[in-house]
Design goal:
The complex is a heterotrimer of chains A (258), B (198) and C (147). Chain A has eleven helices and four strands, in the order H-H-H-H-H-H-H-H-H-H-E-E-E-E-H. Chain A has two domains: 174 residues; 70 residues. The longest helix of chain A is centred in the first third of the chain and has 24 residues. Chain A is an alpha+beta fold and 258 residues long. The radius of gyration of chain A is 30 Å and the shape is elongated. Chain B folds into two domains: 73 residues, Copper binding periplasmic protein CusF (OB fold (Dihydrolipoamide Acetyltransferase, E2P)); 76 residues, Nucleic acid-binding proteins (OB fold (Dihydrolipoamide Acetyltransferase, E2P)), CATH 2.40.50.140. Chain B starts with a helix and ends with a strand. A five-stranded mixed beta barrel of chain B has the order 1-2-3-6-5. Chain B is globular and about 50 Å long. In chain B, strand 11 and strand 12 form a beta hairpin. Chain C is 12% helix and 31% strand. Chain C starts with 9 loop residues before the first helix and ends with a strand. Chain C is mostly beta strands and 147 residues long. Chain C is built from three helices and eight strands. In chain C, strand 3 and strand 4 form a beta hairpin. In chain C, the strands form two sheets. Chain C has a six-stranded mixed beta barrel. In chain C, strands 5-6 form a two-stranded antiparallel ribbon. Chain C has a single domain, classed as RlpA-like domain (Barwin-like endoglucanases). Classes of the chains: A alpha+beta (258), B mainly beta (198), C mainly beta (147). At the A-B interface, helix 8, helix 9, strand 1, strand 2 and strand 3 of A face helix 1, strand 6, strand 7 and strand 8 of B.
Chain lengths: 258, 198, 147
């Protein structure tokens, strides 16, 4: 147990160092500061200064944790900071639920359950760090600390693009969802997109006053009917051809339809 | 219907004599107003010829709609009105609870004579968070929207390439725009078109 | 891609061509229900309004049209633009009510109508405005924007 506690200052220290460097030096973080809950709480004008202040605080605590000597007061400071994180997340979730966390990097997703789990884990590690002594070795303690770091990384939405997204891409490549099924009828949207690209539609579109009224297929053509100022506009779109030049149009007066 | 379609077919294929370049309207009730130029509306102002909201009830050919801003609209649907719900549909597809946008002409009695009604239409942008089965999991402003591929309906447009029913080139992490039909009171959407820049 | 701030906005030299789409804002239903009233606090789906990629420094930092090689002038809330459909010539005048679209995420995308094409997403209209120049179900069209 003492070995595990002894490594907690380093685990917390590394996380805080990462958080502080992001807040202090990331241009993207500064650009997106306005979207964070901190900005919504402190006001847009104070968003960047507030982020920098939080980053500086984190840097001081991180340095104290990572550099010798190991003192209980460092664990107390980390505990206070982690409690502050949890309180900030809870308050932000309640008051500005749509804003992002601004914790460990720039991303636009609102605060989610993983952010709370990460802050909770940091708090537990910080409490353990109060009783930390010098690390004297021990494989199990090192393994626990490594697992802790991995869990903290896994609980960080900011890092999803580095591991979760590639993993999902791999799964998609293997499983091939969305693979095209058997060739059936040409979807209407394919016909309409071809229609939109045609000169025939372009020449008549200013006269159209509705969306598609009627559609049917006949003799290898798809007929598409719109209401027009003159009555109706009917387009004939070849089903087997992807060339918009094959689209034809006619304006038909309503009296002719009576 | 068949006779009407045959007439339209022969008109567009050049075999009929009923094709006219331009004729005056005047015989179809509310549609008579469709041809009139829309009155000038101040930029930034509410467009009186447009309505938004959810259908509360349907009475004869009129949709009673409660706008999201809590303003009631009566929207009259006539023969010439187009209805969209993942594609052109008939009037009986409009259900209470459906969201809608409608464009038409506001009549003196306050009723909107509809030219077009789009039911549950959404046009959302976001990152593809994951792809499973027939679904795209879209991260739309931090909220997950489940977007269903509907065989025979859903297509993808990869920049200016011809549209394709094959959605398999879409990739996790990609930013896309999805035009589709919302499934009322869920976070799910049926895909009409996916727009992808690549 | 150059990420430097452009000095010569193309829309100052004359009308600029690009892609137009639509977005919902204000009180709304479905996935739009939580979007709010936009960066200007005035946005409503039923009003003739639009989103512009350069309403402020913070807005520009998000939309980055310069990364697609397009520079656009700073226009703030309430400024009027005319959007004309390249297909058919229908137009609508709207005022700025939000920041957007995120031009950089669709760099190089192109929409065509007949032989006329336009690249890059430069403007998003409200449903009320978009449906005056095209059908909502079209989703994306080439257009010309002028002040």
């Amino acid at each position: 147990m003492h070995g595990i506690a002894a490594l907690q200052p380093y685990v917390i220290g590394l996380v805080l160092l990462w958080a502080s460097l992001t807040k202090l030096f990331s241009a993207r973080m500064r650009a997106e500061a306005g979207r964070t809950a901190l900005a919504r709480l402190a006001g847009p004008a104070r968003a960047v200064p507030a982020l920098r202040l939080a980053g500086a605080l984190e840097l001081v605590v991180a340095a104290a944790l990572l550099l010798p000597p190991v003192l209980p007061v460092e664990g107390v400071a980390a505990t206070a900071l982690s409690t502050g994180f949890l309180a900030y997340l809870a308050y932000a979730r309640l008051t500005v639920p749509e804003s992002s966390c601004g914790c460990l990097g720039a991303h636009s997703r609102p605060i989610e359950g993983r952010s709370f789990a990460r802050a909770g884990l940091l708090l537990a590690a910080s409490v353990a760090a109060i009783w930390a002594g010098p690390y004297t070795g021990g494989v199990w303690a090192a393994l626990v600390a490594a697992a802790e770091v991995l869990v903290l990384l896994g609980l960080s939405p900011e890092l999803d693009r580095h591991w979760l997204m590639p993993l999902r891409r791999l799964v998609v490549r293997v499983r091939k969802p969305l693979a095209p099924g058997p060739q059936g009828e040409v979807p209407l949207e394919v016909t309409l997109r071809l229609l939109y690209r045609s000169r025939a539609y372009c020449s008549a579109s200013a006269r159209l006053v509705s969306d598609v009224q009627d559609v049917w297929d006949e003799d290898g053509m798809r007929f598409v009917v719109y209401a027009a100022r003159e009555g109706l506009a009917v387009f004939a779109v070849p089903l087997a051809d992807a060339d918009p030049a094959g689209v034809r149009v006619a304006l038909v007066g309503e009296p002719a339809l009576a | 219907m068949t006779t009407r379609r045959q007439m339209l077919k022969s008109a567009v294929l050049g075999g009929g004599a009923t094709v006219v370049a331009a004729t005056a309207l005047g015989s179809l009730g509310p549609e008579a107003a469709f041809g009139q130029a829309a009155p000038d509306i101040e930029p930034g102002a509410v467009d009186p010829n447009f309505a938004e909201g959810r259908i509360r009830s349907i009475k004869d050919n009129t949709l009673l709609v409660l706008g999201s801003n809590m303003v009631f609209h009566s929207i009259r649907v006539v023969d010439g009105t187009s209805l969209w719900k993942l594609g052109p549909v008939s009037f009986d597809q409009a259900k209470p609870g459906d969201g809608l946008y409608a464009r038409g002409v506001r009549m003196p009695d306050g009723v909107l004579a509809a030219e077009s009604v789009w039911l549950n239409i959404v046009n959302i942008k976001g990152h593809i968070r994951n792809i499973t089965g027939d679904k795209l999991h879209l991260d739309h402003g931090g909220k997950e929207i489940l977007c269903h591929r509907i065989p025979g309906k859903s297509v993808a447009i990869y920049s200016d390439s011809p549209p394709s029913a094959d959605l398999s080139p879409l990739r996790v992490g990609q930013h896309v725009q999805i035009l589709g039909a919302w499934r009322p009171d869920t976070n799910e959407v049926d895909i009409a078109t996916v727009f992808s820049a690549h | 891609m150059a990420r430097s701030r452009p000095t010569d906005p193309v829309d100052l030299l004359g009308p600029v061509q690009g892609e137009v789409s639509w977005f919902c804002c204000g009180a709304a239903w479905g996935p739009c229900g939580t979007v709010g009233k936009g960066a200007c606090g005035t946005c409503n789906s039923g009003s003739l309004q639009h989103a512009w990629p350069n309403t402020s420094d913070a807005c520009w930092a998000i939309t980055r049209p310069d990364s697609c090689g397009v520079s656009l002038s700073r226009r703030t809330c309430g400024f009027s633009h005319r959007t004309t459909a390249l297909c058919g010539g229908a137009s609508v005048v709207t005022t700025i009510a939000d920041c957007g679209p995120q031009t950089d995420l669709f760099c190089g995308e192109r929409s065509c109508c007949g032989a006329t094409c336009a690249s890059n997403r430069l403007i998003d209209l409200t449903p009320a405005a978009y449906s005056r120049i095209a059908s909502l179900s079209s989703g994306l069209r080439p257009c010309e924007i002028s002040a």
